[in-house]
Structures are given as structure tokens and as C-alpha cells.
Design goal:
It contains one helix and 13 strands. It is mainly β and 187 residues long. Helix 1 links the parallel strand 2 and strand 3. The longest helix is centred in the first third of the chain and has 11 residues. It is elongated, with a radius of gyration of 20 Å.
Length: 187
Amino acid sequence: MPAAVVVLASMSMPFPCGSRGFAASSSSSSSDSAASSASSVDDFDESTFIDKGKPVFKVLEQTVKPFTKEDIVRDHFAVFEVGSHQFKVTPDDVIFVEKLWDVRVNNVLTFPKVLLYATREETHIGRPYVLGARVRCVVEEQMKNARVWIFKKKRRNNYRRFKGYRHPLTALRVLAIDPPEGASEPV
């Protein structure tokens, strides 16, 4: 007699879960955050994220300086990849991704797998990625999703099983979207 499986969810996330493994390569950071972040971004090699498809991001600096709402420019957006998921973001958006295991809260990450970059004037579509475009994010929180209840039952056999599961997630806030090579800066 096959077992009937029912999944009860109190809250669902806007994306499916299930990708595996992320890797990070950390870089040394100094107390001069402005100088070190600029040099870290310039030192980043586009070919490092293609090596066997494993590295997805690079840690730029360990702390985040507070910013004001006037610093945020929302005249451009990007679609980028994290693992097997794609996200459309603008600066100051918060997204929830599969747990990134090698990062800590307040780490600044750069994601070079940008599929599309657009402003009000122009659109750059990658084949497969837009060269030079990067999305910089800060890790806000390592958390778990809402509980999902799995209920199994075999009728007429007094067989009932409840099991709960909470999927691990990472909350990322988008700090900036770096334009691709040869693109005009957003107004």
C-alpha cells in the first residue's frame, strides 16, 4: 500500500529551495574601507567565478558603513544569479537566497553573474553574463524559513507521521549595482 504524503506550509517563500553548495574566497581587508573596497573590486577577476562553476561570490570587506536614503539610486536594475536562482533587484532591495555557508553577518559580497542590466536609457543583455556588471550585497541575516509540516498516513494501518522542516536562508541587502563596461552611469 503506497504512503500518502501531504505537505502543510504555514508560509511559503517566493522561490523554490534545493540548490547545493556555495563557496567563497575571502580577501584581506584593512581599516581603510573606502580604499580597500575600491582596490578589492578592481582586483576581482571575471574568470574566478567560472572555475568549475563552484565560486559564486567573493567577500570584499568585513564591515558595512551606514548609508542614508539619499545615497540610493533606483534608476537602474539588474537580474543576477545566485546558485540556480535568478533575482531582479534595485539598490536597497532585500532578497532571501539559499543559505550561503561561508559568510557572516555584515560581510559585503559581489556577484558577477549579472544576466541583465538596465537603466531608463539603455539595456544590456548578457550572453550569458554582462561583462563588468556586478551586484554588491551585504549579508543582513542568517535565518531559517517558516516551518513546513510533512504529514504521512497509510489508511487502515494506524500509521501517521508528522515531521517539521525549516529551510536555512540568507538575507541579502543590495548595496549597489556596478554598471557594465562602456555603459553610462544611471542619472
